[in-house]
Amino acid sequence: MIELQQNNPLHGLKSETMVSELVDFYDWKILYAALRLECFNNNPSMESCLKFLKKTEWARERVESFYLYRFKSMPKGSAAQFELKPRERGFADGIVPRKPQELTVELIAEMREKATADYEEMKRNNNDRPKQYGKDKPRAQGGYAQNKPKGNRPAPSQDPSNPWGK
Questions:
Q1: Which DSSP symbol is given to 143?
Q2: Cβ atoms within 10 A of the Cβ of 108, count?
Q3: How confident is the model at residue 78 (pLDDT cuts 50, 70, 90)?
Q4: 100 contacts 25 by C-beta, under 8 angstroms
Q5: Nearest 5 degrees, angle CA 146-CA 147-CA 151?
Q6: Which of 11, 41, 86, 130 might form a disulfide with 64, Cβ 3.0–4.6 angstroms?
Q7: DSSP tag of 69
Q8: Could you tell me the sign of the dihedral formed by the alpha carbons of 9, 12, 17, 23, in that order?
Q9: Alpha-carbon distance 112 to 115, whole Å?
Q10: Residue 60 has what DSSP assignment?
Q11: Please, what is the Cα angle at 46 between 40 and 48, to 5 degrees?
């Protein structure tokens, strides 16, 4: 297992170390703007933040992903990689963490607005296309199974001892 995790910057990293690095570089306000976690907004302290992250797995995964892809600027993985938790992901040999991405509250707001606009555009484009139902259904000899003519079917057996009609 250790061999698989050597290329993951989160391997062996404690939550306390990770959060203190993030706070030292970004500050509590920028972390709240980027992650939208109340532990970074309402009376933030290292102890309360670590307690919250220890109890809530989804928040810890969000902070770990932020640490990997914004702070360490690691390359984005494949869809299969994103199905794994951040601590279970690995990176190819030779990939090293880079400088942290510079963020401001204004830049985060712009990125969020752009992502929302892109999402709305995608929804609009998907709604403009006609729905194509049944494309993934298996076809029978004469078309879809439910449209197959019933005249070719033999009559069911009237024998009560033969429940399958054969």
A1: E
A2: 19
A3: confident
A4: yes
A5: 105
A6: 86
A7: I
A8: positive
A9: 5
A10: H
A11: 70
- Which amino acid is residue 133, in one-letter code? Y
Handedness of CA 43, 45, 51, 56 (dihedral sign): positive
Cα torsion 122, 58, 82, 70 to 10°: value is 80
* Beta strand pairing call for 139-140 and 143-144: antiparallel
- Reported confidence tier of residue 12, pLDDT bands at 50, 70, 90: confident
What φ, ψ does residue 28 adopt, rounded to 5°?
-65, -40
pLDDT, tens digit, for every residue of 141-163? 555 555 555 666 666 667 777 76
Question: Does residue 4 come out as left (phi exceeding 0), alpha (psi in the -120 to 50 range) or beta?
Answer: alpha
Residue 42 structure tokens: 């309402």
Q: pLDDT of 81-123, one tens digit each?
A: 888 888 888 888 788 888 998 999 999 999 999 999 999 999 8
Provide the H-helix boundaries in the chain.
Answer: 2-5, 15-26, 28-35, 46-55, 57-66, 79-83, 105-128
- Measured CA to CA in angstroms, residue 6 lies from 19, 33, 55, 122 at distances of 21, 31, 26, 38
Q: CB atoms < 10 A from the CB of 70, how many?
A: 18
**Could you give the CA distance from residue 163 to residue 78 in angstroms, rounded to a whole number?**
51
